[in-house]
Each structure stands twice: as C-alpha cells, then as structure tokens.
Amino acid sequence: MKTRRKKVAPSAPLLPKCPTGINGLDEITSGGFPRGRPTLICGEAGCGKTLMAVEFLVRGATQFGEPGVMMSFEETEPELKANAASLGFDLDRLVRTRKIALDYVHIEPSEIQESGEYDLEGLFARLNHAIDSIGAKRVVLDTLEALFGGFRNEAILRAEFRRLFRWLKSKGVTAVITGERGSGQLTRSGLEEYVSDCVILLDHRVCDQIATRHLRIVKYRGSLHGTNEFPFLIGGDGISVLPITSLGLTHEVSTERVGTGIPRLDAMLGRRGFFRGSSILLTGTPGTGKTIVSANFADAACRRGERTMFFSFEESPNQIIRNMHSIGLHLDPHVKKGLLQFHSTRPSLYGLEMHLATMFKEIATFRPQVVVVDPITSMMNTGTPSECRAMVTRLVDYLKANQITSLFTSLTRGGHSLHQSEAAMSSLMDSWLLLQDLEGNGERNRVLYVLKARGMAHSNQVREFLISNHGVDLVDAYIGPSGVLTGSARAAQAAREKADALAIIQDGARRRREVERKSHALDRTISGLRSEREAAEEEVRQINAQVGRRTRLLTTDRIELGRLRQADSASAPDNHTGMKKEPKLP
Amino acid sequence: MTPVKRSKPSRRRPVDTWDLRLYVTDDTPRSRAAIANLRSICDTHLKGRFRITTIDLAKSPERAKGDQILATPTLVRRVPIPMRTIIGNLSDIDNALAALDLNTNPHPGKTAESRKK
Fold first, then answer.
1. CB within 8 Å: A113 and B92
2. Inter-chain touch A115–B87, beta carbons under 8 Å
3. For residue range A141-154, what is the model confidence (pLDDT) as tens digits?
4. ipTM strictly over 0.90?
C-alpha cells in the first residue's frame, strides 16, 4: 500500500518545504519556506519581522527538531530573550539545551575605520561556527541591512551578500533574512536582489483607528502560494496568519441533529432541531429575546453533556447567568461542571483580527461542541463591512471544519430593511431564525420564524415567542384579516373562538331540547288520541250492551204481554219473527 | 602561519606596550598582506612597544564573537584605550596610521619618550 502510494506520487520533484510552524503561514505557503534556500521577510519598522523570524526558529527547534541560529544585528541577546518571552517562548532554555544559538553582532560605525581591502569572512566564520556548534538547520539574519551602516564600501558589501546567500544555500540551511522596507523597493538596500526564492512582505496599517497587520507573499519561486494580503496577529502564543479565503469547502458534514432547548422550535425544524456542525444565525431587533434563545441553546447542549462556549460581547457572564435565572434557566451548574464557558470581551477592546485570533485560541483550548456568539454584530463596529464579512467567513469555516455547531445572534436595527442588511452574513449560515417585535393594540409582542434551514423540512409558520418565568415557549400566532394576532389580540381571538364554540354547543343543546319538547308534545297528543279512541270503543261497547238489554227486555215484555193475552204456544215460533221486526221498533 | 606572533616585549614599561589583535581568515594573500603591513607600521612607529596577536578565524571561529569581528582582516587595538577597530589589509598606510593615532602624535603624553627612542 505504501509503495503504491509512493509510485502514484508526482514524478517531478516538488520544491522541498521547511514548515514554519506558524499558525496559518504554512497553509498559505503550502508547506512553509523553501528548504535550504533563503527567504526574505521585509516590512516597515514594528511590523513583526523579528518576531516572525524568532518564531520560525523556535518552532523549528521545538516542533520539527531543527536547531537554529539567530544572528541579530539589532537586538542584544537579553533583549531577544525578553521579546521572545512575550510570545511565550523560553529562548533561554532553548539556548541552554543547544537548540538555538544566539549571536548578537554589534556594529558601531564610529569605532570602525577602514584601510585597504577586506571581506566579510569574519561573519562567515562566525555564522559557520554557530551553525556547526549546534547542527543548525535554520538560520535567521536580523537585519542584515544594518551592515550597510557599518561599512562604507558598498561594493564589497554587495559582493559579500551575494557570496553569503550562495554560501547559505551550499550549507543547506533554510535561512530567513529580514529587511526594513524602503521607499520604492521592498528593502532599503535592495536585499530582494539577492534573495530571489521567497519574499514575504509584512505591513501594519491603520484603518479607522484600528491597526491591522497584513502579510503578503510577494514571490515564491517554484511553489504555489496564496497571493492575497492575509491579516496576521501577534498574540500571546505567537503569530497567527489568518487566511481570509478558506482554502476549500470540504468540511465533513453530519446528519446528526441537535435540539435547540425549545421543543416547539425543534418541532418547527422537522421535529429534531439543527444539524450538528451547522451554523445558525439568529437575527432580531433589540429586546426580542436573542440572548434567551442562545442561552436555551447553550443549556440544551450542556444537558446533552456537550461542551459549550459562550462568547458574549455585551453582557458579563454573571449578568447572563442572573438574567437567565429570571426565566427559570440555571446556567451556573453547567459552568461549575466545566461544560459551559463564558468569554466576555468588549468589542472595542481590540481589532477584529485580534478578536478572531482570541476566539480561535479559546476554541482550540476548550474544544467545545457548541459555540454561541452573542451578538456577532457588535464586532461589525470594529471593522469595515468587508473585513467583518471576511472575519465571519473565517470563523464559520473554522467552526464547521471542527464540527462545532454555532449560533450567532445578530442585532438588527429597527427600520432597516432586514433582508438586505443581513444578506451578506446570512448566505454563510445554514439556518436563519428571525425574532421580531410586532406592535399593535398598544403592546409589543415577539414572534419567531424560520427564514431558512438548509437541508431540512421546516415550518413556514410564524410563532409567537413567549417568555415567562418558567422559560420560553412558542405558541401559534393567529393570522387574522388585519395581520398576525399576538399577545392580547391573540388571547382575545382565542376567547372569541372559545365563546363561539360555546355558543355552538349551547345552540345545539337548545335545538335538541326543542325537538325533544316537540316530540314529547306529539307523544302527548298521541296518547290523548289513543284515550279518545278508547273512549269511543267503550261507548260502542256500552251501546251494544244497551241494545242487547233493551232487545231482551222487549222480548220478555212481549212474552209477558202474550201470556197476559193468553196467547197459545203457537205464537212461540213467532219469537224469531218478532225479533227481526225489532229494529223497526223505536 | 603561527597564530601568535610576538615582538620583543618591552618589559620595563608594560603600560606603553600596544596590544594589537589582528583577525584574519586563512592564509590568503590578503591575510599575509595585512600581517606584513601591520608589522611594518609597528616596526616603524612603535619599535619594541607592541604585541601583535594574530587570530585565524578559520581555525578558531569562536573568537570572532568577543571583539565583534565581521570583516577580515580586522585590526583591534586593545591597548592603549580607546579601543580602535580597523578593517582592511592596511594597505592604505596613511589611513591606518590616522586610525591608530600614529601619524602625528602617536601617543599623547608619551611624545618625548617615543621621540627619544
């Protein structure tokens, strides 16, 4: 497998690189400085040339096992050690352990007289001795141009410089030469003429009272390199070069979802919340509850056992914790457990780049899984819009590359066209939640909606965002003919609907009762008729009985009469006839 | 080339003895010229009152740091004070003498003595 990969490797030998170990610099130089060749770092006074050179040596000695020699023409050894200590480098220890050799070259032009021919063999011998004494692979000459002040014969110097660089190359050391920026050329005395392999230009500019350092690779023979100006910082642990443009959009993605801590919000996002490692923008006008949503998000992450970092640019950690108590959210246990870390700074404390570097550093040390930045917009005041956008891009890229779920809140000013002002930033974000104030009926109410959520089904509904002392909740907002109804209008609407429902119920009951009553009435009528019929039947029966009785009475009367008239028995058969004739009788 | 060359030291007045160090690299024509020029200057102007230490940086490079040597040849006058540093092969004699204060008044205060010699 290994051998095969070797075969696949490009046949043309690539320029061997010497990693600098400086944050970001190896990325933009695709691997570092050219190995075995001199590199020129030039720039104005105070732009960080010497520190960059020192870091190159220290990183080489500590990280890459390459001892280095520092030949300084400007700073004495104790000065160098003190300066390096400000970056957290223990130069003294490295010198004692023979990882680094320092040689301070003192040139005092007033003490030196010239007489006849000379060369710089002394310098060569010194350098050679220093290199050989510790087996150095890296050499820094800071600032070689100081020699021009020490020697009058420039022709000799130039010839010797050319020889020096040839000699350094033949020695196989990777050299860094610093040079002061001159007018019209990169260095005051044209050192770039001799160092033709790699030239790096440092710059320190002040824009809107905020100073930013920039680095640009002017030339890098035989290698690909970033050509832009990259901001860089000198922080407590060295130099960080921050590539503005991310080198690629190749970060890993996760299908895992993380909850927001607000169940109804999760429900709006396909019931499961955001994707892990995605970036979320939460915009809102002042007082819409951005920090509360952020705190809920952080709380949910801590409850899942995830490390969370909360960058706050407006409130102190204690203030946030206290304020969240009022909505029943207790963040202090998470802080005590070490799951939640606050990092509060004033945006105006330092420039954008420094903020970014500090954030990178904090994130790299704490290694959180969730990061909250509240609010990102306060950074916007510390730089130009394009710088801010670049900074957010880098931050988002960095977080995504590290699979960190990030929530950025953004303050929108009332009256601005929201979609326009946030468009630049929102395109970087995977999800965008909007919190808004709705004014009406003499009150302000908060609503929340999901403007976008890449890669997941999400609700298109506006939800009312309620903050109570039990926490936050989202309730359906009523959409009425005059717009969205929230707050008391929503309550009124709800009451109205409740009353309507009650009325329907009552109406039904009433109508049911009426029908029942009617049917009862009918029942009563039916029973009345029935008893009437019964009465009629009874009458018929009585009539029949009466008729029978009377008939019998008539018969017996006639028999009695006949007997009285002494009728014979012959008259007996007439009985029947007599009966037939009966109806004629009255 | 011997690293250390010494003239007859003047034992009686050690204070007056000039302590000169000549830094060279390797046995090059330029180094030899420097040594020759220095000897001739000393023999002419400081007869018996000088001590020359020749240091070959090719052989002992660690010694370059002490006197802050960059160019070779370099002549360092350690005594008398003030210390003087002259770079070059001393072929420009006048220049070298001026630098060593030997052209007009080689040693202020010792003029009479040196004249006597």
1. no
2. yes
3. 988 888 888 888 88
4. no
